[in-house]
Amino acid sequence: MAFKIIGAGLSPFVRKARVFLAEKGIPYELEPLVPFGVSAEYKRKSPLGKIPCLEHDGRPLPDSSVICAYVEKVQPQPALYPSDPWDYARALWLEEYADGGFTASVMGPIFQERVLKKLLGGKPDDARAQEAEDKALPVFCDYLNEQLGDQQYLVGGRFTIADIAVASPFVNLQHAGVKPDPKRWPKLAAYLERIHSRPSFKALIEEDRASLPK
Fold it and tell me: pTM of this prediction?
């Protein structure tokens, strides 16, 4: 069974799918694609024109959440979704909180203005990035710090899709020079250090750094 991920490595959603595959021990091919002005051919695979898109034995499947859920069915072990119904629902909620909330409100503005626009030769708007850092970031960090409590992981006492989804956009923040203050959010800061040290994340973080300007 051949797996291919189409997308740009710096995307938190592409990273999420790649970490998921790595944690499953599934080899895959990465086909780089920047999601700007995508071709009609790609839109036939991913109608919204977004990344990532998975191709499994030539069949396309877009959206990181859908990709991860599909791969879990294809290869159930090691399980990355909780079996307990409540924990399963919480993991899905935290995945959505990261994907639809944190990435859009915090990571997006900061990473776009401080990293992406510079890479693409655009003119950064640091006021937009600073507003996200000052106003939106603390709200999300407060919540995640609280959700961790005294646990090593977000849900069910073990590593799940919730951890993958939450930790992925924080990599982009690191690339933009932003980390949760360990004095203000000690649990979250320690948690992210721990999750980003996993081989699945560490390899991709190093790959990112090699591709970014010094």
Answer: 0.97
